[in-house]
Design brief:
Blueprint: E1 6-10, E2 13-17, H1 21-33, E3 44-49, E4 55-60, H2 73-82
Antiparallel strand pairs: 1-2, 3-4
Protein name: DUF600 family protein
InterPro entries: YezG-like (IPR006728), YezG-like_sf (IPR036170)
Pfam families: YezG-like (PF04634)
């Protein structure tokens, strides 16, 4: 379960770009490496890099991501199997998608 949107902002103009396969592989590996036993891993990340090379990164561990395409519940089930979270670390919006009713934190 992943999506990468890459944008460049130069002089107030934002331009979209397709990330390379190498970039996608690195992001998937980062998500895997950041997995924490029973807590899961992040659903999405936002990284801003300015023209001086300074990076600001936000990892979203709890909020439902605003995907640009429809994501079925099975995708979340597969993600939970790959990066398991204990019930107390499953966000309330995710529990029904996993077939857990209203259970979740």
């Amino acid at each position: 379960m992943s999506e990468v949107q890459l944008f460049f902002d130069r002089n107030g103009t934002t331009k979209g770009a397709e990330p390379s396969d190498d970039t996608l592989d690195l992001i998937r590996e980062l998500r895997k490496l950041m997995y924490r036993l029973s807590y899961g891993t992040w659903f999405s990340l936002t990284m801003k890099i300015d023209d001086q090379g300074h990076a600001e990164t936000h990892y979203n561990y709890d909020e439902e991501s605003d995907w640009s395409f429809p994501l079925d519940d099975e995708s979340y089930v597969e993600d939970q199997q790959r990066f398991p979270r204990e019930p107390e670390h499953i966000p309330a919006w995710l529990a029904p998608k996993l077939g857990l009713g209203s259970h979740g934190s």
